[in-house]
Amino acid sequence: MPSHLVNNVSTLNVLLYGEPIATITNVGNDRTLFAFMDSYINDESRPVLGLGFKDSLGSLLTNFKPTQTKLTPFFSNLLPEETMRNYLAERAGVNPAREFFLLWVLGQDLAGAITVEPADGEALPPNVHQDIDDDTKIEAPMRFSLAGVQLKFSAVQQANGGLTIPATGKGGSWIVKLPSSRFDAVPENEYSMMELARMLGMDVPETQLLPLSQIANIPQGVGQFGDALKNAQAFVIKRFDREDNQAVHIEDFAQVFGVYPQDKYKKASMRNIAQVIGIEGQDEDIAEFTRRLVFNTLIGNADMHLKNWSVIYKDKRTASIAPAYDFVSTIPYISDDSASLKVSRSKKFSDFTLDELSHLAAKAMLSEKLVLDTAKQTVAGFHEVWQKEKAHLPLTKSMIEAIETHLRNIPLR
């Protein structure tokens, strides 16, 4: 990207549901400052940007300090991580560490109902208002951001049931998660775990396994899908932050707690998540949280970090637990007796007992009866559904064996 473009952008407007609510200003030396607009501050019926922008009394926080190189945690968490970040930054000609400019390029299709665009008179990111022809689309920057590490893209459904990844990466209502070059059959694993969760009554978006041959415009340079993967499948999931071509606002718990993505395994526990859900949500939200916590313990998912839990604002102001995502049994790949976060006192799967859940309920000020009754129902339901369905899911024999070995070590029965 020409350096003059980067040097000519100093202020980004933050829009929520298409309405400007805040600015992010590059104040020099790679320092940025976030500020709400007066119109948002003075709006008593304003839509909620995030729970972390409220003080202990529920009033809007309005004083923020500049951050260096990174954006504030809320906006940093909207950007992809690691491989995906490097890939998109390279395509756009932006240093992946300079988050202000990465957001400038990717801000047109973020998670939730946020968009970010240059303020009036500021330089537009490359190709923002251009149709990209077939000869140039390989080099064109992709203009969307799905947070996380895994290679995944926003996609649009075709009339024939296949999917197309738009040349700009922008505007899809499906997420395509490509096969892993490190671990075997991750899409099949995730599809199976999500289907099991659905059978147990959890709130799971529409999902499918789709052969790579039915996905058009997989960007060049993404993974090497050679002969070994020519018949591979991708895991496809409907975006729950898009409904009838409208954005629905969401935020993950790293955003809620003001934690940078690299600290998503630290600085909070399942108990902390439960406490927020208990304060903000209803009994059904607490029951759904409990179902998911128990389920992911039973399948051996050691990767349920802060970014794999979210809240959704269906009415723009009230937070409830968002639909389920990223349910994968990790133990077939990495044998581990520990979850990614503490439940209440321990993160060890072998310490997952009714007593540990009672402790969580007491400390998070939740109904112990609701938590324990839901946990018992989920355990009983899981064992019944697992025995009936495991042979009919696209799981390898080694995956089934790993999960069954793991289940024998879980004390919750």
Automatic annotation (TrEMBL):
Keywords: Kinase, Transferase. It comes from the Bacteria. GO terms for molecular function: protein serine/threonine kinase activity. Gene3D superfamilies: 1.10.1070.20. Residues 12-116 form the HipA N-terminal subdomain domain. GO terms for cellular component: cytosol. The keyword Disulfide bond does not apply. Residues 144-386 form the HipA-like C-terminal domain. NCBIfam families: couple_hipA. Belongs to the HipA Ser/Thr kinase family. This is Kinase.
